[in-house]
Amino acid sequence: SMLITRNLGVLTLCALSAALSVPAPVRLLVVTGGHDYPTSFYTLFEQEGLTWDHAVSNEEAFRKDLRGRYDALVLYDGSAKISPEGQAHFREFVEAGGGLLVLHHAIISYQDSDWFRDLVGGRYLLDTIDGKPASTYLHDQDMNIRAVTPPPITQ
Known about the structure:
By secondary structure, this protein is α/β, with parallel strands linked by helices. The chain is built from four helices and four strands; from the N terminus they run αββαβαβα.
């Protein structure tokens, strides 16, 4: 009876420990380069539940296979070109289910890549292309946005 109670207690503690275990942190690769920004930007990633590495260029970021090393990429760069090997590593990562967050200037990256345009859902045109005028922007604009359908990422 004492042995059974003790074993049940051990099993209960093991089950409780597993249920309360802290999930593994999200592993990010933050890619910068091509424009200036305040270093306070890095504080976004210094929070519980995240671990992150920093690549100062796309050449550094996509030098090797990223699958299994990171859960998501955060692009905050403005890279004009990417090597064929780098694009292969980038493509393999996202096609294997790796996450991608494209911030701010990163929308100007890879102007010649239809694959990147399709991946991120658009392209900021630096110049007139095929009769389409160069893109423009306005700072400090308020926008009222309403999701018509719930975004898949929230499901």
